[in-house]
Amino acid sequence: MFKRLFSAQVAQHVRQVPHMPPPYPLPTSSRGAERRRLDDMHFGIARYMKGLTYAPLKNPSRILELGSGTGAWTIQAAQTFPSAQVTAADMSPLPENLDLPSNVKYQQMNFLNPFPFKPASFDVVHMRFVMIHLPKPQEVLSRLASMLRPGGWLLLEDVNHTLLDANNEIGPGVRELYKGYQRHMERQGVNPLIGAQLRTMLEESKEFSEVNESVIPCYMNPRSTSDPDLQELGEILKYSIDGVYVGIMDKVGPAGGITPEILRAWRNEVNDPSRDLRIDMHMTWSQKK
Fold it and tell me: Which Pfam families has this protein been placed in (predicted)?
């Protein structure tokens, strides 16, 4: 069991979320199993990266996280930069009783609506595993860039939601699960493979003086790598991804393209020691012109 570094108190004054929220297929409550899943994932990634980001941040004064979830990244940012004002934004409230640092405030909002922030008002904008749930990602990227001051950093991080096998053809369980999952996401107008496209989108936007990317392979089988840090990260991502598919199955039912039988077959193949399965996580950091 991974450590829970943060306890819980929520901000008092929040805006109501407008109608027609983003097509997010998972439970939106940051409590119970979903909170544990999100926290474990954040702490695992932070341990692997040895910090918040690979970007060379230097004393930012205003930081925005869009898709704050349980508040884990936001709180770590506030503790790392205690002189900065850090804003956590999400369509769902932060967990109850969250002990927020004094330099954190919370904004409840729908990312499909205009952002309630002035242009060029942040030094850092962070978004992890959110672009995959938003339609028209190029437009979203332009809106994100507009909130950055010149020299500010946009931190976009996402996955390619498909498994690759270095040694074999993908098995029927994995193939059928991703066929259903990707079909469901495409019906929502979002791109489940956005992770691998982030760098190209950032470069083509012409908004940034530099675009950087690190592709982190998250191995489902610890025997696939001798790196203990990658072994730990792969284990965390494997169980987190499993939770994603359980959440989709529970929330959208058979229309989500994932049945209990398909999920069992996927699990059998993911845990097969003869396979070399991985999912790639794409971490980008780009500096505004």
Answer: Methyltransf_23
> How far is residue 10's CA from residue 265's CA, in Å, rounded to a whole number?
40
Which residues pair with residue 153 across a beta bridge?
124, 287
**Encoded amino acid at 249, one letter:** M
Q: What is the pTM of this model?
A: 0.87
Are residues 289 and 208 in contact, defined by beta-carbon separation less than 8 angstroms? yes
**What single DSSP character describes residue 271?**
T
Say if residues 208 and 198 touch (Cβ distance below 8 Å).
no
Evaluate whether 141 touches 169 at the Cβ level (below 8 Å). Answer: no
Q: Do 219 and 279 touch, CB atoms closer than 8 A?
A: no
CA dihedral 115, 118, 121, 126 (to 10 degrees): 0
Taking the C-alpha atoms of residue 77 and residue 88, their distance in angstroms, rounded to an integer, is: 10
In angstroms, the Cα distances linking 2 to 195, 232, 233 are 26, 11, 12
What SS3 class is residue 156?
strand
Residue 279 to residue 228: CA distance in whole angstroms: 17
Question: How many separate helices (H) and strands (E) can be counted in the chain?
Answer: 7, 8
What's the length of the chain? Answer: 289
Mean pLDDT by 10 residues, the chain (289 residues): 32 36 51 77 93 96 96 96 97 87 94 93 97 93 97 96 84 89 85 95 98 96 94 92 82 74 92 92 98
For 164, phi then psi, to 5°, come to -110, 145
Q: Cα 21 vs. chain centroid, distance in angstroms?
A: 17
46 within 8 A of 283, measured Cβ to Cβ: no
User: At a CB cut-off of 8 Å and minimum separation 6, what does 62 contact?
Assistant: 84, 85, 86, 87, 121, 122, 123, 124
Three-class SS state of 213: strand
The HSE-up count of residue 204 (CA atoms within 13 Å, CB side) is 9
Torsion, Cα 23 45 196 88, to 10 degrees, reads 40
